[in-house]
TrEMBL record:
Listed pathway(s): Carbohydrate degradation; pentose phosphate pathway; D-ribulose 5-phosphate from D-glucose 6-phosphate (oxidative stage): step 1/3
Active-site residues, as the UniProt record annotates them: 242
Similarity-based family: Belongs to the glucose-6-phosphate dehydrogenase family.
Sites where the protein binds substrate: 180, 184, 218, 237, 339, 344
Entries under Gene3D superfamilies matching the protein: Dihydrodipicolinate Reductase, domain 2 (3.30.360.10), NAD(P)-binding Rossmann-like Domain (3.40.50.720)
Keyword NADP in annotation: yes
Protein name: Glucose-6-phosphate 1-dehydrogenase
Annotated ranges, domain Glucose-6-phosphate dehydrogenase NAD-binding: 17-189
Residues holding NADP(+): 53, 94-95, 150
Catalytic reaction list: D-glucose 6-phosphate + NADP(+) = 6-phospho-D-glucono-1,5-lactone + NADPH + H(+)
Record lineage: Bacteria, Pseudomonadati, Pseudomonadota, Gammaproteobacteria, Oceanospirillales
Main EC class the enzyme belongs to: oxidoreductase
InterPro entries: G6P_DH, G6P_DH_C, G6P_DH_NAD-bd, NAD(P)-bd_dom_sf
Gene: zwf_1
Keyword list, A-Z: Carbohydrate metabolism, Glucose metabolism, NADP, Oxidoreductase
């Protein structure tokens, strides 16, 4: 067995955070690193080198981090804050200038035993230049880990270029492509639920499952990100990555073990089995107009700050997808995601087929059958809807729907559920890749989404309007109701 001190020493890290002054770093990564420190998961030798173009000093950067931490729900403790901020140095860098990497290398050489983790919280267009300079300056070696933020490209071609640029400098085993949904606690639990319980193994296929719904609804609009979002749209922003990853975790076969390779191989099989989608019948594209959100009047997408008033970018997509393999033959997977929907809600609902022979009150035959509801956020938990006998003598043979409910928040009481980035950073520090996305996964997902984007471009139809604060265009309700089903939250 490896001695504990050696395991801990292997965690000694120099985290070079490129794009440290950006929204992602200040809002997500710094708080996640702080939390890892608070839990004693950063070794004393671990350092954070914050890199961006802005002329911060280390002190003024720490001041900025402190403001953000104080805005979070878990107030920082003075003791941890002091320990955490002592790890940080700020390095102002023009990423294209080779001389800057010499300075970085000098800093890294102060503690040569530390492993470099380079986190690219940057646009993917900069990955190539940063990777090359890290390599040629000697900052990076075979032990370095690279964390790459999404989006990796805009389509298959551009993502292959980004991946080629990374591969020219680093081995695939060094590259950690982030999909933060894989770091969410309930998403982890989906793997435990499916593969640790024999209960589900025998019902997880076309013989028992009628259909699957995956919803990722956001209450917010585009949050001042017009420049990025309008070039992307909801398909690229949410479906190509998060939604397809969730679909993979629901649909994949049991992996032989929990290794990154076994899990990724099974996910790739699902992506390869994704069927062609007919955009005239199986897809709804929407764009929000003005409406109400959180009790406030909010502008439509075309009235957002910086908007091009004629944009036909979609802010909502619903898709009836198929996984064409033996396990899922004939089972529709309904995907739905949008901005400015009535609430923030991510959930997976697995609907089971009705019992083969119905013997109860005919007037109640409409009651929904068994459903497994996996709530990813908020109110994380798992609920199994079952039909039970109603109580009372006069209600003999009457049924009622009842949940077998498991709420993570109730079970954990006041204990906080770690943020996705906290989990993912901890996995990177340990060198575990199973919660990160392999190159071929990204590329198969793009292949499928590119076909949809091409079909939309050929059809040249504007997206359907929906009012902010509604559940998307009415066509999305029709998409599922044509098959005799309805969205779970609308029942
Ligand atoms: N924000 C989020 O919630 C999410 C972001 N992402 C992705 O993460 C990446 C970063 O996003 P975000 O933080 O929002 O972006 P921001 O625009 O807020 O920040 C970008 C950061 O990159 C730095 N940067 C950009 N160009 C250069 C350059 N040429 N040389 C040096 N530094 C540069 C900026 O430095 P400076 O300001 O000093 O110029 C800034 O620190 C993007 O790819 C985004 O798509 C992914 C998921 C969620
Ligand atoms: O990657 C992205 O995800 C967020 C939604 O993430 P969540 O954890 O808040 O559900 C989305 O708002 C953003 O547009 C997208 O780029």
């Amino acid at each position: 067995m490896t001695p504990l001190k050696d395991i801990q020493a292997s965690l000694d890290t120099d985290l070079a955070l490129f794009g440290a002054g950006g929204d992602l770093s200040l809002r997500k990564l710094m708080p996640a690193l702080y939390q890892l420190d608070a839990q004693g998961l950063l070794t004393p030798q671990t350092r954070i080198i914050a890199i961006a173009r802005e002329p911060y000093t280390t002190d003024s950067f720490i001041e900025k981090v402190s403001e953000k931490l104080k805005m979070g729900s878990d107030a920082p403790s003075d003791e941890v804050f002091e320990r955490f901020t002592a790890r940080i140095t700020y390095l102002q860098m023009d990423l294209a200038d080779a001389a800057n990497y010499t300075t970085l290398n000098q800093q890294l050489n102060e503690r040569p035993t530390n492993r470099l983790v380079a986190y690219y919280a940057l646009p993917a267009s900069l990955f190539e230049i940063v990777s090359q300079h890290l390599k040629t300056s000697g900052c990076a070696d075979a032990n370095t880990r690279i964390v790459a933020e999404k989006p990796i490209g805009h389509d298959l071609e551009s993502s292959s270029e980004v991946n080629d640029a990374l591969a020219a400098c680093f081995d695939e085993s060094q590259i950690y492509r982030i999909d933060h949904y894989l770091g969410k606690d309930t998403v982890q639990n989906l793997i435990a639920l499916r593969f640790a319980n024999s209960l589900f193994g025998n019902i997880w296929d076309e013989r028992s499952v009628s259909h699957v719904e995956i919803t990722v609804a956001e209450e917010v609009g585009i949050e001042g990100r017009w420049g990025y979002f309008d070039k992307a749209g909801q398909l690229r922003d949410m479906v190509q990555n998060h939604m397809l990853q969730l679909l993979c975790l629901v649909a994949m076969d049991p992996p032989a073990d929990l290794s990154a390779q076994a899990i990724r191989d099974e996910k790739v099989r699902v992506l390869k089995a994704l069927g062609e989608v007919d955009i005239s019948t199986d897809v709804v594209r929407g764009q929000y107009g003005a409406g109400t959100s959180g009790g406030q009047q909010v502008p439509g997408y075309l009235q957002e700050e910086g908007a091009n008033k004629t944009s036909s970018t979609e802010t909502f997509v619903a898709i009836k997808a198929r996984v064409n393999n033996w396990r899922w033959s004939g089972v529709p997977f309904y995907l739905r995601t949008g901005k400015r929907l009535p609430e923030k809600l991510s959930q997976i609902v697995v609907h089971l087929k009705p019992a083969p022979h119905y013997i109860f009150d005919a007037a109640q035959a409409h009651l929904a059958g068994n459903r497994l509801v996996i709530r990813i956020q908020p109110d994380e938990g798992i609920q199994l809807q079952v039909l039970l006998k109603d109580q009372g003598l006069e209600k003999d043979r009457r049924l009622r729907e009842g949940p077998l409910d498991f709420s993570f928040r109730e079970e954990h009481g006041a204990a906080r559920i770690p943020d996705a980035y906290e989990r993912l950073l901890w996995e990177v520090l340990q060198g575990k890749q199973s919660l990160f996305v392999r190159r071929d996964e990204i590329e198969h997902a793009w292949r499928w989404c590119d076909r949809l984007n091409e079909a939309w471009a050929d059809a040249d139809e504007p997206p359907k309007k929906y009012a902010a604060g509604s559940w998307g265009p009415s066509a999305a309700v029709a998409l599922i109701s044509r098959d005799g089903f309805s969205w779970h939250d609308m029942e």
